[in-house]
């Protein structure tokens, strides 16, 4: 897998993040610090199916052995152009992670990375027609999703989900200071 932020590769085929200095900060905390970060293990924990209803979830999670979660949004869409996409550990702790679709024909695609030790996150979730790249505005925030979280919820604020899925990966990492 290749993950990019602002056109810079941050995870490449060698499964290594290289020389990223303070990739993003939330409340003064760096999501990823300085140095080389080696991915020790990546595990698909499951998928959130976003084909019906205003919310969907993935439960029975055990996150204590992971450092990060990577959520991969695959053609997630809703029945309303004004719906805003949210993610959280419960329906009362949802945070918006992308702008509204703005066009009923658009879908969401991209990634969200959550640092489980602090709950700091950043997301680059684009909007556009399936297969069409649209540059996403990076979003950052602080979530209650941590190593003690057992469920992850996706929510759309208007209408219902009608297509797509969100793959959830657990990532173990090893920071090697340079």
Describe this structure in words.
With 178 residues, the protein is an all-beta fold. It has one domain: Jelly Rolls, CATH 2.60.120. Helix content is 0%, strand content 51%. The chain contains no helices and 15 strands. It has strands spanning 3-5, 8-11, 16-17, 25-26, 29-30, 36-49, 55-58, 68-78, 85-88, 95-96, 107-115, 120-128, 139-142, 152-156, 161-176. The strands form 4 sheets. A 7-stranded antiparallel beta sheet has the order 3-6-15-8-11-12-13, with no helix packed on it. It is globular. The model is unreliable at 1-32 (pLDDT under 50).
Layout: helices, strands, pairs:
Blueprint: E1 3-5, E2 8-11, E3 16-17, E4 25-26, E5 29-30, E6 36-49, E7 55-58, E8 68-78, E9 85-88, E10 95-96, E11 107-115, E12 120-128, E13 139-142, E14 152-156, E15 161-176
Antiparallel strand pairs: 1-2, 3-6, 4-5, 6-15, 7-14, 8-11, 8-15, 9-10, 9-14, 11-12, 12-13
């Amino acid at each position: 897998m290749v993950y990019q932020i602002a056109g810079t590769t941050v995870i490449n085929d060698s499964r290594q993040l290289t020389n990223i200095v303070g990739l993003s900060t939330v409340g003064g905390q760096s999501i990823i610090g300085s140095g080389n970060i080696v991915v020790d293990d990546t595990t698909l924990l499951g998928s959130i199916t976003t084909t019906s209803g205003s919310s969907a979830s993935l439960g029975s999670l055990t996150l204590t052995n992971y450092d990060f979660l990577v959520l991969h949004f695959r053609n997630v869409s809703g029945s309303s152009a004004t719906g805003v996409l949210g993610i959280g550990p419960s329906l009362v702790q949802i945070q918006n992670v992308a702008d509204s679709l703005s066009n009923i024909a658009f879908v969401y695609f991209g990634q969200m990375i959550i640092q489980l030790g602090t709950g700091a996150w950043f997301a680059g979730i684009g909007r556009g027609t399936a297969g069409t790249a649209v540059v996403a505005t990076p979003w950052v925030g602080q979530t209650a999703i941590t190593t003690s979280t057992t469920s992850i919820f996706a929510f759309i604020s208007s209408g219902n989900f009608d297509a797509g899925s969100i793959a959830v990966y657990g990532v173990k990492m090893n920071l090697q200071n340079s």
